[in-house]
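Give me structure tokens for this 277-residue protein.
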Amino acid sequence: MKRTLLSLLIMVVFSCNQNEKKEPLADEKIMTEPDEGIGDGAVSPAVAFAQNIESAHNKETWNTYKAVAFDIDLTFGGNPRFSGKITSLTNSSKIRIDKEDGAKLIYDGKEVFLCPKIAEEKGARFDMFTWQYFFALPFKLTDPGTNWEVLGSQKIAGDSFNRGKLAFENQIGDSSKDWYIIYQEPETGLLHSAVYIVTFGTAIEKAEENPHVIVYKDYIVLDGVPFATTWTFHNWDEKDGIGKQIGEAKISNINFFKPKDDLFEKPEDSKLIPPMG
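Here you go.
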């Protein structure tokens, strides 16, 4: 794979940020290393793999910002699936979604609310957490409660990609039985793709029969942080790897900002969307 202009730009930006480090915001919780390592303060090869991707995405700079917002236009099978603006604190502790149809979803750090009360609630809690997580994934790989395993590399179009499997401890998120297989770009070190299963409302045995993969493309660099502006969704299996495309998301208008105090507050005309079960 030839080195692209983007990969060179990312390396220059990252080098500059290493020389001019910003201090995290005072009230920002920086996620810590979940693995006990292999002695003398070293981390395991599996965790080092995850940290390497976070470094390529300049997580250090990401953590200096309080909040981030982006627009998303998502289609599956050629049909519209989800359009709107997603806003979150960079540590994902609060999230807001403003849908194109006028409905709003708010996660205030404890509970999920849908506004207005008459809005369709089917899939609301799934939408609340899924698309924001896919966006923030390169910065959440070593969150507390994450567990890593090194996998063998796999070739895609003649290039060999290093891989690791991400799983979660119990009580992490709405679906702690989810897992991901993370592929890393060999040239840039960026996140290339993530195999995933969806256990939300589904038994894990059933979910594992139908894994999919999201491929991150068309990276841009904003304030020193690389973001993929196209996601493509595909079928996936261990033998053949990435298969037929089944969906696509376009990401635009990404921006960092300092949120107002009431941005993630429960709206007046809203209803609670509780966890399943």
